[in-house]
Amino acid sequence: MAKFVLKKISTGFKFDLKAGNGQTIATSEVYTTEKSCSNGIESVKVNAPIANFEDLTEDPVKQAVNPKFEMYEDKAGEFRFRLKARNGEIIATSEGYKAKAGCLNGIESVRKNAPVATVESDF
What we know:
By secondary structure, the protein is of the alpha/beta class. It contains 2 helices and 8 strands; from the N terminus they run βββαββββαβ. It has a 4-stranded mixed beta sheet with strand order 3-2-1-8, covered by helices on one side. Strands 4-5-6-7 form a 4-stranded mixed beta sheet, covered by helices on one side. β2 and β3 form a beta hairpin. It is globular, with a radius of gyration of 14 Å.
C-alpha cells in the first residue's frame, strides 16, 4: 500500500509519496513546520485525483488550469512532473524518467495512490 513518509531534515520538514513497492513517486518542497508539511500532504491527496494535465514537451502547449500536473523535460533530457495546487503552488515533484511513458505512469501512480495513502513519520 502507498504511503506518505514525513521526514524531519536539517532545514525543516518534507514528505515523500512511496508506492507499495517502496519506490518514491513524488516528493515535496521543504516546509518550515510539521503542520505545514502535513497540510501539503492533504493538498496532494485532494488535488492529485482531480488535477488536469499539461504537457510542456508538446508544441504548442495546451494550457490547463490548476490544479494540474505539468510534465516537462529537464536540462539532462529526462522527463519530470510537478503537481500544482489550485493556487498555482507546486506541492509535489517527481524524479527524472528516461522515457515520457515512464513519467506518464508516474503521474497515474500519484493520481491513484495519493488519495488512499497512509501517513507515517520517520522521526
